[in-house]
Amino acid sequence: MSATRVFVARLAGCTVFDPAGDRLGKVRDVLVVYRNGQSPRLVGLIVEIPGKRRVFVSIGRVTSIGSGQIITTGLMNVRRFEQRGGEVRVIAEILGRRVRFTDGSGLATIEDVAIEQSGPGEWSVSQVFLRRPKTGASPFGKGPTVFATWNEVEELGQTGESQSAEQLIATYADMRPADLATTLMDLPQLRMLEVAGELPDARLADVLEEMPESEQVEIMNQLDDTRAADVLDQMQPDDAADLIAQLSEARGEELLKLMQPEEADDVRMLLAYAPDTAGGLMTTEPIIVSADATVAEGLALIRRHELAPALGAAICVTLPPYEPPTGRFLGMVHFQRMLRYPPHERLGSLVDDGLEAVTAETSAAEVSRILASYNLVSVPVVDENHRLVGVVTIDDVLDYLLPDDWRSHEGDDRAARRTAPSLQARPLAGSPAGGQIKAPTAGNGQLRPGTARERRNGHGS
């Protein structure tokens, strides 16, 4: 094993391989335990394997760390990771902490932690990379940096000083919203709320859309009304409506008053529909154009990077006005059809005449059958005057049909116990590693059977 000093922040996202070179997963964090009078000892890695399952890999199973990759023996316990008492995550809990130099030279913030091998299968924290407070008046200036051993600093955790989340946010900057949501839910509760509170509004909105409703409400309850309204403005209207419906009616109405009027109007409309109807599932922000728009204009609209793939699969053609509720709905044009015609072709001549729109009162079950029967990604929703009010996308339907706990992968754990009854629990720190099972190279996730969840209370404003 390499004895080179390794910085933990650089391990985040590194690929983990078995001896044959097969990819097992990615590193998400490093786990240490504190020791009296000595620097913390590394006990293992938290690795995300296919299926977004996070498992513990004992440091004794690691044979090489370096060059942006980690080699293991290929044996790991695939039981979902659960943090034990006394264990501390370096990236999630140590980076960003405030410390005091024992020589009295002042305070600093931990920006990274270096680990080194001290023996066969033994790794410990060797140094910390610190940043002192800035001394200049420039708002863009930063304080000087310095290396120190663990014994040269002491943490301020006992004083009640809150831990900065800036370093953790920077470490996870490249994560997709769904992966960041999973990472936040794995953090201790107080740490999750700290990190969520420091995320930019748009980033927090994306993450909230990927979280279960209980965590959404928990985070929103920690935000003041003005910040909460700003975050809701950044969310998709249907996701914002789902979240507001879980809050108290009084706070929901207060947040709607603080939101941008156009965004609030969309959310109010969605809240008026029952949760098991097309109106309760739809989004009010499809791409809408006139019949005179050309193929070139349509392709330019679906090319926007911020557009969800399901919404970019088809364009709605209506009479003016072009904001829901629109003028009379004329039909949809799928992007594949646009690719078959020259750029100057009018979209009005490419409308799919065989696709029937549904009404806002159509049941979710019927919408699901239509999407499945015709291999569609989205279906338009119209009112009694045949005006377009929104579209239901395949992800809206899946989110409705899946059980409440689909994000937690609890079904994976039950499936793993059924298929591997001899699987051992993760050993305590310092004890021999258990769970002698070859790590999978593909996800084994299975969805637990469950009833369709109630996404909204359906109360109007």
From TrEMBL:
Domain CBS residue range list: 351-408
Pfam families found in the cross-reference section: CBS, MgtE_N, PRC, SH3_actinomycetes
Keyword vocabulary terms for this entry: CBS domain
InterPro entries, sorted: CBS_dom, CBS_dom_sf, Mg_transptr_MgtE_intracell_dom, MgtE_N_sf, MgtE_transporter, PRC-brl_dom, PRC_barrel-like_sf, SH3_actinomycetes
Renumbered residue ranges of the record's region Disordered: 408-461
Tagged with keyword Glycoprotein: no
GO molecular function ontology, one term from the record: magnesium ion transmembrane transporter activity
Keyword 4Fe-4S included in the entry's annotation: no
Biased amino acid composition, Basic and acidic residues: 451-461
GO cellular-component term (any): membrane
Protein name, entry field: Magnesium transporter
Natural source organism: Subtercola boreus
Lineage: Bacteria, Bacillati, Actinomycetota, Actinomycetes, Micrococcales
